[in-house]
Amino acid sequence: MKWTLESLPNQNGKTAIVTGANAGIGYETAKALAGKEARVILACRSRERGEAALKKIRETYPQAQLELHLLDLTSLDSVRQFATEIIDKYPQLDLLINNAGVMMPPESKTKEGFELQIGVNFLGHFLLTGLLLELLEKTPGARVVTLSSIAHRSGRINLDNFKGEKPYMSMREYGQSKLACLMFALELQKRLDAKGSKVLSLAAHPGWTQTELMRHQSLADVLSRYLAMPTLQGALPTLFAATAPLPGGTYTGPNGFFEAWGFPATAKIRPHAQDAEMQKKLWQKAESLTGISFLSA
Ligand SMILES: NC(=O)c1ccc[n+]([C@@H]2O[C@H](COP(=O)([O-])OP(=O)(O)OC[C@H]3O[C@@H](n4cnc5c(N)ncnc54)[C@H](OP(=O)(O)O)[C@@H]3O)[C@@H](O)[C@H]2O)c1
């Protein structure tokens, strides 16, 4: 049986954060959760785009409990500021959805000098998760869902290229960042288990979905308008990972050809993403670059 929006259980009483909630998969994820009565915190870098998304969701769900908080993942100060606001304001956090992302932009760096894709897609979310972990721990049944991609398959981690030390290759850097997201989600679950925590960490990927992600690649952008899945369908693996009775460490994605299209199911994790030594090294590197240490031995 297909897992669809109708399969999403009621979320009354739950609080969810969705990063990058103003567009694409993040917007549909936030809207679906709000439609099922969750309180949803839209974590967006632009007040204007965030408010527009909030207003648009309310057109469909006038009673939606939505709050906008600014989060710019290109700045670790912004991540810290956002986490402080959340911890001060909310007594619980049921779902942290690490969704925001950039794909193959022109070469650029975050405020701390990280290559943009590893910085936004992975390192910013690593810090965010670490800062919010205590709040998640306080909330029975809490989950972290981190967005990866089919691109993890060709990705390779080069710990000496997080600051753009090598000549820039946009697709290589995107693959690395999405592999890092998947390895982080898996390592996070191992460390939560080791500590006896009840928080779950899962990863999800949306196959090939019509969004604004391919804005920097004109051919892919045009093709995706005709061939990729509708945006809501692409949000389903995230919603499935966030709410279905799945064990921690599960990776979800579409069940059809190449996992590019279809409905949510367990997705395949390539062996190199399960390299335990590299998972540990990646964690340590992220700790040293972001200045946070959590769930460490
Ligand atoms: N679409 C696909 O086929 C596909 C496939 C595999 C994986 N994914 C993953 O799915 C996730 C969502 O992407 P999407 O396809 O929905 O793309 P999208 O339509 O471009 O949405 C990306 C979201 O991330 C936000 N964002 C970008 N940089 C940010 C920053 N520095 N700080 C905070 N937010 C930031 C964007 O905000 P602005 O609007 O302000 O830019 C936007 O809200 C990403 O992690 C992506 O890697 C997508």
Q: What value does the Rg take, in angstroms? A: 17 Å
Distance between the termini: 42 Å
Largest sheet: 8 strands, mixed
- Helix residue percentage: 40-55%
**Structural class given helices, strands, pairing?**
alpha/beta
Q: Characterize the quaternary organization of these chains.
A: single chain
Mean pLDDT: 97
What would the principal axes of the Cα set say about the shape? globular
Low-confidence stretches: none
Portion of residues in beta strands equals 5-15%
Number of strands: 8
Secondary-structure element sequence? EHEHEHEHEHEHHEEH
Instruction: Identify the bound ligands.
Output: NADP nicotinamide-adenine-dinucleotide phosphate
Strand order of the largest sheet: 3-2-1-4-5-6-7-8
Instruction: Work out the helix count.
Output: 8
Structure characterization notes:
This protein has 297 residues and is of the alpha/beta class. It is 42% helix and 13% strand. The chain has 8 helices and 8 strands; from the N terminus they run βαβαβαβαβαβααββα. The chain has an 8-stranded mixed beta sheet, sandwiched between helices. Helix 3 runs parallel beside helix 4 and helix 4 runs parallel beside helix 5. 51% of the residues are buried. The model has no long low-confidence stretch (mean pLDDT 97).
